[in-house]
Amino acid sequence: MQPRPGVAPFTVRTPRVVAARRLHRRRDREETGRFLAEGPQAVREALRAGLVVELFGTAQALARHPDLSAGAYPVTDEALGVLAETVAPQGLVAVCTAPDVPLESALARQPRLVAVLVEVRDPGNAGTAVDPYNGKCVRASAGSLFHVDLVRTPSVELDPLRGAGLQVLAADPYGDADLDGLADTGELARPTAWLFGSEAHGLPDAVAHAADRRVRVPIHGQAESLNLAAAAAVCLYASARALR
Amino acid sequence: MQPRPGVAPFTVRTPRVVAARRLHRRRDREETGRFLAEGPQAVREALRAGLVVELFGTAQALARHPDLSAGAYPVTDEALGVLAETVAPQGLVAVCTAPDVPLESALARQPRLVAVLVEVRDPGNAGTAVDPYNGKCVRASAGSLFHVDLVRTPSVELDPLRGAGLQVLAADPYGDADLDGLADTGELARPTAWLFGSEAHGLPDAVAHAADRRVRVPIHGQAESLNLAAAAAVCLYASARALR
After folding, report:
1. If exposure means fewest CB atoms within 10 Å of the residue's CB, which of A15, A77, B93, B226 is most exposed?
2. ipTM of the complex
3. A15-97 belongs to CATH 3.10.290.10
């Protein structure tokens, strides 16, 4: 398949480029329900998920990725530069539809493992609490944004999670339960919603105490605690292993 | 205990501050074998490890942390600002002796779990391959720099690791062994040296193939791979759990 034939490359002033570029701003993302994904890997995943609204690529990138280039708009290097946030975007940027779903829809699929991020702020860890569609978060998700159900809620409600048959475990460095212990007793083999707090402040006390268990990752050494990303990776891995 | 009495706060021009500030440069760290640690948590760990050469603090910070302030030099806010890299260093910066040890010494302690970082470049993940004492790495280690044996070698040598009774496992997204499988068979319960490659390129082929096993973290979903920090957290957790 070929890029749109006979179209002169779009420049930074072409209206479609001007409009797409605005999606770097959160307000515009929220108003339109759209966001930008860059690079062949993210674009491929977004296409597979049926979420691509418009695709822009340099002539070189479209030639290198013929599988992605159907219907793409060619853009100048300069126009690609203003659409992309990274230094090396590899020539492709897509306007995508934000894929988040209502909590009820996500729970209706009977997930066995859910991660709830409470007031997480570092986009590299999960997206800010309010906008998982900023560029850094989209890149950090490495495509998972396009095939994991993403739900945004104004507050944390545990009843719907429990109603869907999930136990609620709070990741808490000062928790009285220990991840190894829960794995040993088989408790991790139950469908689980994990609650993770912010990097700086952890979970709000009220949220942590509303969970069924407060669970710490055992630290075999003298470190005081793990960072959020490491703790979440370990908790989710341990659950996924127990749920096999 | 009190800060040095009767000393006027050091300024940005005081020779000790000028000398300490140079340690932001890698060349100066390498020439002196010293580096900077900032914030009460890192300073406390460095003091416990006996690695603090000089401690600088604002009057406010020294008053707030009397347990740390013995022998500290008071500095002006401006001087603290040039010594610190973070926006909120909480008033304390220490000049520390780099604690790395020779490989033989580290192995003589018969470690049961060793992480080998091969050409890792992102300081947030482990320190650059060449300088684990840059500020970002010191902060990312969250104190572990001061109580884990740190060894730097110009190349990766597996024989000394095997000689110390360690099996060598390479973390490799395309590995033929699976972390869950090794946990199930009990292989993870053997003393282990894990090899982790760079974020961008993974392990060099020759290094990965020289390991006893190339091990992938099982991915229960559609993601293509984990980032280095998440993969390392999961591998080391799984080993530590098996080695309990």
Report:
1. A15
2. 0.76
3. no
